[in-house]
What does this fold into?
Amino acid sequence: MEPKDLRATTALPGLDPRKEDETTRSGNLNVNIDQSSAKNFLILVVDDSADNVAVLSLDLQQQGYRVVTATNGEEAISVASSTLPNLILMDISMPRLDGLGATRRIREKDALRNIPVIAVTAFGTEGFQRAAYDVGVSGYLTKPIDFTRMHQLVARLLDPRGSGNLIRQ
It folds into this structure.
């Protein structure tokens, strides 16, 4: 089995994370949100592992974001409906309703339709990525999480100047 490249936690389809290109070097993907601006954003962290929820939540809070949590897909839909987060980090493999099913149902609700959802999963295969993008995720991160990439992706999707579309034309 080939060792996993830890820098492979990317949400940029078609971009090989091992190859730095001019777009990455020029800073076009390195959007940063300062802590004073971050407090304006609410992020929903969804994972059935309490440890993962804690690590992601604490990291995002240290970046200045406000965080709410859910432990399965059904709870994620309920929490998202009541809090209207600016972004959702969604685990894919969960009991009751998995992340793909939850994202599909989120995309069906008018109030939630445009909230960026980042798939966070241990499944890094092309098939899982394709399935995730097919249900409407905006980004894809594989575990173990590369926090630098996660911060860049979160900032990019929350940047009011951008479209949040990370698929290169």
